[in-house]
Specification:
276 residues; mainly alpha; 13 helices; membrane; transmembrane
Length: 276
C-alpha cells in the first residue's frame, strides 16, 4: 500500500515537473517572439529616420546642383556628399530621387541630372546590380540605367535579353528600346519571348512619353513567327498612323490564321483608311 502511494506521488511530481517545463517553454517562446518583434520595429524606425536624413541631404545637394549652377566637381568633393556616398541605403535613396526628378524635368535640368548620375558613381552602383544572382536587383539595375539614359549600359542590358528569368528578359527589352529605339525589336524576331498585353502597354507608353520614332522597316516584323511580336507591330503601325504600311497589313490579314491578329488588323486598317 505504501509503495503504491509512493508511486502515485512520484507520478504526480513528474507530471508537475513536465507541466512547469511546458509553461516555461511557452513563456520563453513568447518572450523571444516579443523581443524579435520589438527589435524589428526599432530597426525599422531607425532605418526610416536614416532615410529621412539621407533624403534631406540628397534634396539639398540636387537642388543646389540644378538651380545654383554649382559645378559638379565641388559637390562631389563636399563633406555632405562624401560622408554618405559609400552607404548602400544612401545610394538607393539618391538614385530614387534622381530618377523622380528626371521624370519631371526636361532640357538642361534633365541633362544635368544624367551627368550627376554618371559622374557621382551612382551609375556604377546600378551597373553592379546587373551582375546580381537575384533577379529583383537585376531588374532594378536595368530600370535605373535605362531610366537615366545611361547608354554605356546598353551592351550589358542587351546580354540580359537571354536571361533565364522571364521578367529580366522583359525588362531588358524595355531597357533596350528606351536606350536605342524600336529598332531593337528586330533582335527579338526569332525569340520565343511572350509579349503579353502588360509588356505591350509599357512599350506603347514609352513610345508616347519619349516620342520614340518608328523604324522605316517596321512592317517587316509582321513576318515574325512570334505572334505576340506581330501583334505589337500591328499596334505600333496603328499608333504611328503609318499609312505607308497599309498594304503590308492588308496582305498579312489575308494569310494569317490567328483570329486575334485578324481582329487587331481590322481595327488598324479602319483607322488608316480614315487618314487615307
Amino acid at each position: 500500500m505504501i509503495l503504491l502511494v509512493e508511486n502515485l506521488i512520484e507520478k504526480q511530481l513528474h507530471t508537475e515537473q513536465v507541466l512547469l517545463l511546458v509553461i516555461f517553454l511557452i513563456f520563453l517562446t513568447a518572450l523571444l517572439f516579443f523581443s524579435m518583434t520589438l527589435f524589428k520595429k526599432v530597426r525599422r524606425i531607425k532605418k526610416r529616420r536614416q532615410k529621412k536624413l539621407y533624403q534631406d541631404n540628397i534634396d539639398e545637394i540636387l537642388f543646389s546642383f540644378l538651380f545654383s549652377n554649382k559645378e559638379i566637381e565641388s559637390i562631389l568633393k563636399s563633406e555632405s556628399f562624401n560622408n554618405h556616398i559609400n552607404n548602400p541605403l544612401y545610394k538607393r535613396v539618391a538614385i530614387k530621387s534622381i530618377i523622380s526628378l528626371h521624370n519631371n524635368y526636361s532640357g538642361n535640368y534633365s541633362t544635368r541630372l544624367e551627368q550627376f548620375y554618371s559622374e557621382s558613381g551612382l551609375a556604377q552602383y546600378s551597373m553592379e546590380k546587373l551582375n546580381s544572382e537575384k533577379w529583383k536587383f537585376v531588374v532594378e539595375g536595368i530600370r535605373d540605367l535605362s531610366g537615366m539614359n545611361y547608354v554605356k549600359a546598353y551592351q550589358k542590358i542587351q546580354y540580359l535579353k537571354d536571361h533565364r528569368n522571364s521578367l529580366v528578359q522583359t525588362e531588358a527589352l524595355l531597357g533596350m528600346i528606351k536606350l536605342q529605339g524600336l529598332q531593337e525589336l528586330f533582335k527579338f524576331r526569332k525569340s520565343s519571348i511572350y509579349l503579353n498585353d502588360w509588356i505591350q502597354s509599357n512599350i506603347l507608353y514609352m513610345v508616347k512619353k519619349f516620342n520614340i520614332p518608328a523604324p522605316p522597316d517596321l512592317h517587316e516584323l509582321l513576318d515574325s513567327k512570334n505572334e505576340s511580336l506581330a501583334l505589337l507591330t500591328i499596334r505600333l503601325i496603328t499608333h504611328y498612323k503609318l499609312v505607308v504600311h497599309y498594304d503590308a497589313l492588308f496582305s498579312f490579314h489575308q494569310h494569317t490564321t490567328n483570329s486575334r491578329l485578324k481582329q487587331e488588323i481590322n481595327v488598324g486598317l479602319k483607322k488608316l483608311e480614315q487618314i487615307h
